[in-house]
Amino acid sequence: MKKRLLLIAGLLAASALPAAAGSLENVRNRGELVCGVSPGVAGFSVPDEKGRWGGFDVDICRAVAAAVLGDAGKVRYTPLSPKDRFVALQTGEIDVLSRQATWTLGRDTQMGLRYVGIAYYDGQGFMVRKSQNIASAKDLNGASVCVPTGTTTELNIADYFRANGMKYEGVAFESGDQVAKAFESGRCDVFSNDVSALSAYRLKLVNPAEYVILPELISKEPLGPVVRQGDETWTSIVRWSLYAMINAEELGITAANAEEQKRTGSPEAQRLLGGNGNFGESMGLKPDWALQIVKQVGNYGEVYERNVGAGSKLGIGRGLNKLWTAGGLQYAPPAR
User: What would the pLDDT profile of 101-135 be if each residue is shown by its tens digit?
Assistant: First the structure.
């Protein structure tokens, strides 16, 4: 009994010790956030002619930098292939992974990683040539299908064709760009990926109007930022950086009115923006952490529309990514 009490006391004492330096301290000491992104997917993460990165996934990185460093521009972007993306996070090469990487049971429980939330609800689909006159995925029996290797895309294709009693030839390439080029050159009949990615890659084809994305979605593809397991403070920071943008849209807080909302907004708005209380303290952040996110990056709706929605070249409707109040699935816990 005495040994048991000593063991319990030792555990309690250990839990009271200050935690070893984690991602928050590393990022602050470095003075920049290192964020893993895809090598170049229009609307999500792509550098311009001057090497400046932009896109939906990039704005998630910028939001974290705004919360932690007070400056959304203090981010170093590391482009990663599907094969390398998780290893880079596991080894500490990057602080957070913000790229098209589906949240699955295995990835969340077997790799020492943590998905912090769903930034984008997606689904896998198929792109074909209009000249093929294919109206449905059920018409793809015997088709050759180009896919990126090392992704859930390959597994979903196998499941879908087997479940529907159809045959196919899988043609895998390491990168999405390689898949797009192979598809365009006629190496395969079909290009399969998340619909958001298909929309982006279609813009890269010589004649985008010659291709169509079929209406069926064959999978659930919840996409969101990923961090290493075991650093609870950092997990909370990245999670609430995303949630701050979602809550800001719901509360009518925009980049233009955030300062005013901090002073005169609803009680919920003032709590989120640091005008009433300090919810950043428990995460090691300043009271205005969420204010900086919205001022410098925007609310969720602004980020969506600017990068992939009506205000972008992709023109993807909000769909499931509408707020829950508008019939969608985007929903964030309250800041209180």
Answer: 899 999 999 999 999 999 999 999 999 999 999 99
pLDDT tens digit sequence for 244-267: 999 999 999 999 999 999 999 999
Q: How far apart are CA 250 and CA 326, in angstroms?
A: 10
- Contact by Cβ (8 Å): 237, 67: yes
Comparing CA positions, the residue from 217, 219, 237 lying closest to residue 227 is 237
Q: Other C-beta atoms within 10 Å of 144: how many? A: 16
Contact between 245 and 300 (Cβ < 8 Å):
yes
> pLDDT tens for residues 4-48?
333 333 333 333 333 335 999 999 999 999 999 998 889 999 999
Measure Cα distances from 100 to 38, 55, 103, 136 in Å: 7, 12, 10, 25
Alpha-carbon distance of 283 to 28, in angstroms, equals: 13
Are 103 and 311 spatial neighbours (Cβ–Cβ below 8 Å)? no
Q: Which conformational region is residue 217 in: left (phi greater than 0), alpha (psi within -120 to 50 degrees), or beta?
A: beta
Two tokens at 221? Answer: 């593809």
Closest CA to 25 of 108, 88, 119, 92: 92
pLDDT in tens, 54-106: 999 999 999 999 999 999 999 999 999 888 999 999 999 999 999 888 999 99
